[in-house]
Design goal:
This protein is α+β, with helices and mostly antiparallel strands and 459 residues long. It has two domains: 150 residues, Neutral Protease, domain 2 (Orthogonal Bundle), CATH 1.10.390; 182 residues, Sandwich (Immunoglobulin-like). Helices cover 29% and strands 32% of the residues. Helix 4 packs parallel to helix 5, helix 5 packs across helix 6 and helix 8 packs antiparallel against helix 10. The longest helix is centred in the C-terminal third of the chain and has 33 residues. The chain is globular and about 60 Å long. The structure holds arginine and zinc ion. The site of zinc ion has 5 residues, from helix 5 and helix 6.
Length: 459
């Protein structure tokens, strides 16, 4: 990914002196090592570039037959490497077309090619079975989740390994193609653009292409008897962005909500810069998981969508999806920003201002759950989606805004989104960008808000 990032940034860097100052940081590859929270997942010895995912799914039996090909690059010679996969029965693994040896070990599929790989290589895994629903440490369900008339695959933080053998860590983004074959009359939705729909008698194959880099946790397919809505949204610059929205028949998306989507998109564009992807939309399905998810380009909602949640998931397209954490312990870079965007939206609608939101949270007792553990200091993945990450994360941004002033703060939001567009970033990267934009030393402010156990004093 680093070379791609550099390639995309080059023209931009040449014209933006402020961003030019950040070049040394960008030259360094994203942190490649075991994830703090999921050290057993991911393999830093190669860089995933493209997943070609072929699925054949039968909603009546919940059985999947699949073949995923991954194109990747190994900077050094590898005699074996690892993919992450739980459940399913693997029937064959090929590397560069030749049969490879493989073994399963916990969540790992360890592949030993006949000859070592180096540079570009491809690995194809054939597998089948009833995919698993995965139970998170916080008790919620992800992975392959069955619905009344099909299934939806959700992947935050780790569930994608129930249906795609993958380098399942947010630091390794790749593009995706999906070819999903389902009974004719059933719809298969995924991330990106609908490229083709071909019916051969009783079966229909839906082809979706997601060309922009995507973290595994944002991969999604939804299969069911959906109502579909296709339209276009206009960006603030006049770009026409295709909208594909699908809703379970019992969870229809009211027109008012569908009309809010382009507004939320433009609201975010004015704050953060151009929408980073080639299409948008939503999926409303009856998977009762208790959360919405910012699945790339096309967020999932488990219930009638409310506009604030829509805005939250839209904000994630910039923060989380385009600018992605390198390590799960930095998740406030996604959730703090998405929560802060809700505050900005509510203020625009005449509700409370971010300063008021900040004050009422700050008034919470020192024993409130929000104050501990600090947003970047948790070590238990149960705390990933806790109040410190969301609310104290958003408060961090308000504290920054009050310190550096509105002009620099709103410039910072755009520069942050542009500098790490389609890449990975860390909290340290963010501190550096905020310091560059404002010319102020901010390490103490960020340490207070992100690292200190308990309520920061003096704000
Ligand atoms: N990222 C989602 C959101 O902010 C929440 C995902 C919650 N997932 C979980 N396993 N608890 O809307
Ligand atoms: Zn979120």
């Amino acid at each position: 990914m680093p070379s791609l990032l550099r390639g995309r940034l080059a023209p931009l860097l040449a014209v933006v002196p402020l961003v030019l100052a950040l070049v040394p940081a960008l030259g360094a590859p994203a942190a490649a090592g075991p994830d703090t929270l999921f050290p057993r997942l991911g393999d830093a010895s190669y860089d995933a570039r493209h997943y070609d995912v072929r699925l054949r799914y039968d909603p009546s039996t919940n059985r999947l037959r699949a073949r995923t090909s991954l194109r990747a690059v190994a900077p050094t010679r590898l005699t074996s490497f690892q993919l992450d996969l739980v459940g399913m029965r693997v029937t064959s693994v090929r590397v560069g077309g030749a049969k490879a040896r493989w073994r399963r070990s916990g969540q790992q599929l360890v592949v030993t090619p006949r000859r070592p790989v180096e540079g570009r290589f491809s690995v194809t895994v054939a597998y089948r079975g009833v995919p698993r629903t995965y139970r998170d440490p916080d008790g919620s369900r992800e992975g392959w989740v069955r619905t009344g008339d099909g299934a939806i695959a959700l992947g935050e933080p780790v569930g994608t390994m129930t249906w795609i053998p993958s380098d399942n860590t947010p630091g390794d983004k790749a593009s995706y193609t999906y070819r999903i074959t389902v009974p004719t009359g059933t719809t298969a939705v995924a991330n990106g653009d609908l490229a083709r729909r071909a019916t051969h008698g009783r079966r229909t194959t839906w082809t979706w292409r997601a060309r922009d880099p995507m973290a595994t946790y944002l991969a999604m397919v939804a299969i069911g008897r959906f109502r579909g809505y296709h339209s276009t949204a206009r960006s603030v610059t006049g770009r026409r962005i295709p909208v594909w929205t699908f809703a379970d028949r019992d969870h229809d998306v009211p027109r008012s909500v569908r009309r809010t989507l382009p507004r939320a998109l433009r609201f975010a564009e004015r704050l953060f810069g151009p929408y980073p992807f080639t299409s948008t939309g939503m999926v409303v399905d009856d998977a009762d998981v208790g959360y919405a998810l910012e699945t790339q380009t096309r967020p999932f909602y488990p219930f009638a969508v409310d506009t604030v949640t829509l805005v939250h998931e839209m904000a994630h397209q910039w923060f989380g999806n385009s600018v992605t954490v390198s390590d799960w312990h930095d998740l406030w870079l996604a959730e703090g920003f998405a929560t802060y965007t809700e505050w900005l939206w509510e203020a625009r609608r005449g509700g409370r201002t971010p300063a008021q939101q900040f004050d009422s949270l700050y008034a919470q007792p020192a024993s409130a759950r929000m104050w501990s553990p600090a947003p970047t200091e948790f070590t238990d993945s149960r705390d990933l989606f806790g109040a410190p990450v969301y609310q104290r994360g958003a408060m961090t941004l308000q504290a920054l805004r009050e310190r550096i002033g509105d002009a620099d703060f709103f410039a910072f939001l755009k520069i942050w989104a542009r500098t790490y567009r389609h890449g990975n970033a860390t909290t340290a990267d963010l501190v550096r960008v905020a310091e560059q934009v404002s010319g102020q030393q901010l390490d103490q402010l960020f340490a207070d808000w992100l690292e200190l156990d308990g309520r920061p004093a003096g704000y």
